[in-house]
Amino acid sequence: MAKGNTVRIAVLPGDGIGQEVTAAALSVLEPLAKRHGLGLSTETLPAGAFHFRDAGEAFPEESFRRAQAADANLLGAMGWPGIRYPDGTEIAPQLDLRFRLGLYAGVRPVRAIPGVPVALADPRARAMDFVILRESTEGLFHSRGRGTVTDDMAEETLRITRATTEKLSRFAFRLAERRAERLGRRGRVTLVDKANVFRAFAFMRAVFDGVAAEFPGVDSAHHYVDAMALDMLRRPWEFDVLPTENMFGDILSDLGAGLVGGMGFSPSADIGDDHAVFQPAHGTAPDIAGKGLANPTATVLSAAMMLDWLASRGAGQPFADAASELERAVDAAFAAGLRTPDIGGADGTEAAARAIREGIGA
Ligand code: ATP
């Protein structure tokens, strides 16, 4: 990506609150881009369950092609109860994107935002700031669409490869190095596995250990996934970067979201070697869709991750500065009293977006 060129963002709002939170995030991005002189262009692409219902296709090939050609993708949420493929499976173009673009690194930060209630009473919980790194192209999800079912049994197969584990592990250690610099302390990468029971995880651990040796400046450790579920409640403030298998990461990242205010506060990035998709960790929330109640924070923070990633890909320092300012604006808005309905407040989607916009340039 050449510095100074216009960066092209493909926007896939999707279904339900995906539409609402994406619109809110774009309303924040626009003044931010202006203030930092970012050359950004956006293009909105159709995909999702309602598009499937109306046009017969969940993810038109043209949308995929444009998403693939864009510099980055910002996605809302996709899927809807009652709208399914003929075989009964959910409509999830976001999973197709992950697999087709090889987005192996699912980055799920778990950070306590000042002013937002956390689930734990221990005062140290206010210092929670760790990242679940969910491998997103293999593991148990490798079996998606490939499982076999007979009258008497069903079977799905988990896959762990050396190539992807090495890439995920390197990604984890590099992320820990960057976080160590920003947070002013030594980085620590903890692989979350089940190596005591499954050979696939013993293999994953051996590959991880090989990569760990390349990064003597970062501590490395392992933790069994069941113990991690416990320790994410007992002492989550002690963790830093947690790479893990796809299904484990799926589950632990929802637990992480629950620790810091819920799904509306949990951003995510799915990153590969050449492409990336940024989206809130939540789904389409049919129960609140269309009511203006959705919390856009997760999407706004995902947009900040997108700007930071673009900066790391050569878009230039103003993108990194804009990312930091956006995160600060979110923190400042909640610290000043913004309270969205999901944490018992009355500030809906637009009020939240407005409060964050007001923090830009403040
Ligand atoms: P998926 O399977 O796609 O993850 P889901 O229906 O299981 O979707 P979500 O849509 O993520 O789960 O959300 C579960 C519930 O959390 C919603 O029904 C909604 O009440 C709440 N929720 C999720 N996201 C938000 C948000 N941004 N703002 C407010 N509440 C939210």
From TrEMBL:
<keyword id="KW-0479">Metal-binding</keyword>
<keyword id="KW-0560">Oxidoreductase</keyword>
<keyword id="KW-0464">Manganese</keyword>
<dbReference type="Pfam" id="PF00180">
    <property type="entry name" value="Iso_dh"/>
</dbReference>
<dbReference type="InterPro" id="IPR024084">
    <property type="entry name" value="IsoPropMal-DH-like_dom"/>
</dbReference>
<keyword id="KW-0520">NAD</keyword>
<feature type="domain" description="Isopropylmalate dehydrogenase-like">
    <location>
        <begin position="8"/>
        <end position="356"/>
    </location>
</feature>
<protein>
    <submittedName>
        <fullName>Isocitrate/isopropylmalate dehydrogenase family protein</fullName>
    </submittedName>
</protein>
<dbReference type="InterPro" id="IPR050501">
    <property type="entry name" value="ICDH/IPMDH"/>
</dbReference>
<dbReference type="InterPro" id="IPR019818">
    <property type="entry name" value="IsoCit/isopropylmalate_DH_CS"/>
</dbReference>
